[in-house]
């Protein structure tokens, strides 16, 4: 799914292609071609063309792997091919622009769990807001009815799911809490018709997506963020916060420290593993810290340890520039030598061959005699 909203151009609100920073945000599953197909439609087919300066993709762990292999690798490298074939300017899109969804513990999600279980396709319906949808102001109330959409029949909803648009048997929009955040499913086709209203400005569609995305954001988290979702013990975290309220850091053992504020960001070292928390007034941010895995974080060579390990196992330490001598060293190891193959004859005496041939001849003669051929 790619969300593209175009607002009317005027002096206070320039056209999208006129902004110095233009971001294409895509939400994909297992189909990385959504990104290239959308970029082609916006930058090559559409007039006036909308060429983003950067592309960001929200996906799962499996989807991120497919994006890197299909679009960002040297072969096939479809993203670079598209830009080169159509003369597009440099567009920022790399591994850092791929954002993997995580669960409440910060672990990447391998796949998405849909909120609805589809049970077939139904005729078009006119969307109607539920009480939850009206509270979020997803769609305008009153006035002319909206264009109908095709919404699939469902066999059931996931627990704790709330229908925002439509009825429970045929819901176009469903929302549910998932871990520390929220997820939504748009179970409808034809939402593009909402951009073709009488005034043609697409305000209904833009309002729907804007309000739906806002409803999925955490309350009170916009002004308190960390530079990464997880840390290792001993790593430094960079925190950004808005407002003038004091930041309070709570260690896993309960100790609290007030953090000094500089240019809006704070750097703090997370010394031990556990769950650290940062609070700023009503805002709260959790920082999961894993134990320090020395083999990953400290990869420097330890010559003394290597020598002890080699001595204990009967080996030697060989420098990289002397690697060619390993073949000679291994050839001199008697315990590593493989015995030469030997040919062992199955029959060591001609008398055994004659006996075997005679037995075959006697057996053949007896069978022929028994059946009356002789």
Question: How would you summarize what this structure contains?
Answer:
The protein is an alpha+beta fold. The chain is 25% helix and 26% strand. Among the domains are: 16-100, no CATH class; 116-216, no CATH class; 224-294, Sandwich (Immunoglobulin-like), CATH 2.60.40.
Model description:
By secondary structure, the chain is an alpha+beta fold. Helices cover 25% and strands 26% of the residues. A five-stranded mixed β-sheet has the order 11-17-16-13-14, with no helix packed on it. Strands 1-2-3 form a three-stranded parallel β-sheet. The protein is extended and about 110 Å long. The termini are far apart. Residues 3-11 have low confidence and may be disordered.
Features:
374 residues, alpha+beta, Immunoglobulin-like, 5-stranded mixed sheet, 3-stranded parallel sheet, 9 helices, 17 strands, 26% strand, extended
What does the secondary structure layout of this molecule look like, with pairings?
Layout: E1 23-27, H1 33-45, E2 54-59, H2 61-72, H3 78-85, E3 98-100, E4 116-125, H4 131-136, E5 149-157, E6 161-167, E7 170-178, E8 181-186, E9 188-189, H5 203-216, E10 224-226, E11 231-232, E12 236-241, E13 247-250, E14 256-259, E15 265-269, E16 274-280, E17 283-290, H6 294-297, H7 303-312, H8 326-331, H9 350-370
Parallel strand pairs: 1-2, 2-3, 11-17
Antiparallel strand pairs: 4-5, 5-9, 6-7, 7-8, 10-12, 12-15, 13-14, 13-16, 16-17
